[in-house]
Amino acid sequence: MDLVFTDLDGTLLDHETYAWQAARPALDHLRRRGIPCVMVTSKTRAEVEYWRRETGNRHPFIVENGGAAYLPAGYFPFAIEGGSRREGYDVLEWGTPYARLAEALARASRAAACRVRGFHGMAAGEVAELCGMPPAQAELAKQREYDEPFLTLDPQRETALEAAIEREGLRTTRGGRFRHILGDNDKARAVMAVTALFARQHGAPRTIGLGDAPNDAPFLEIVSAPVLIRSPRVGALAALVPRGEVTAQPGPAGWNEAVLALTRR
């Protein structure tokens, strides 16, 4: 079987407008073929639930840079080992609690003399302005559990900040708009866990991965067919995932082109 794992911002969703309709032909094709499409993103559960409703997606999803995987209850015909049942999902968690991340970022910022602006200190209106999204979407983006996005206000001190974060036992990654502080989790670990569940039910799948930013590199490296969505960041991503195929078009148009080409083979 084929199994698709996809980032959202700049990939299935347009980086500036968040429109996804250019990907509709490929999404419809996946639905007709019964090919699962698993969202893998730095977005929160609340945000992903919104985009699943918008696109008609009913499959498992991975949030906050691999902080957790949410599996609709009963999606797999067996018990989910290590999972906890809540609010209609079996949840597998790897992320560090959000409160600890926010506190650690503040300490690291002071230690490195590097000013930062994290989501926990932003009002929804500021998040909306920075992300180019409606205030209601920004409220969903602030409902974080395992990952803190932040801006570095003193770029010349970024190396010192990274070192201070490492001393906290945490790490950083870079997405399309923000840096992120997180624990011992990434998209690859979560993708491997979800792939294993599908393999248990259907046999080993061919995995297709799509992303546009460096924080997608860990999971793109481990899928069978990595696709790099064209963007201003694609050069940095290609250096991390040299076997990835770069799309001709950016965003959902490139996503549509790649998914149709790969799943019609």
Describe the protein:
By secondary structure, this protein is of the alpha/beta class. The chain is 39% helix and 22% strand. The protein is built from 10 helices and 13 strands. The chain has helices spanning 24-33, 45-55, 98-112, 124-131, 135-141, 158-167, 187-202, 217-222, 234-240, 251-263, and strands at residues 2-6, 37-40, 61-63, 68-72, 84-86, 89-93, 116-118, 148-152, 171-174, 179-182, 206-211, 225-230, 245-250. A 9-stranded mixed sheet has the order 5-6-4-3-2-1-11-12-13, sandwiched between helices. A 4-stranded antiparallel sheet has the order 7-8-10-9, covered by helices on one side. Strand 2 (37-40), helix 2 (45-55) and strand 3 (61-63) form a beta-alpha-beta unit. The longest helix has 16 residues, at 187-202. The mean pLDDT is 95.
- N- and C-termini, Cα separation: 12 Å
Question: What percent of residues adopt helix (DSSP H or I)?
Answer: 25-40%
Quick one: biggest sheet?
9 strands, mixed
Catalogue the unreliable spans: none
Beta strands, count = 13
The helix tally amounts to: 10
Radius of gyration: 18 Å
Task: Give the CA-based shape.
Answer: globular
Structural class comes to alpha/beta
**SSE run:** EHEHEEEEHEHHEHEEHEHEHEH
Strand content: 15-25%
Give the strand order of the largest sheet, numbering strands 1, 2, ... along the chain.
Answer: 5-6-4-3-2-1-11-12-13
Provide mean pLDDT, rounded: 95
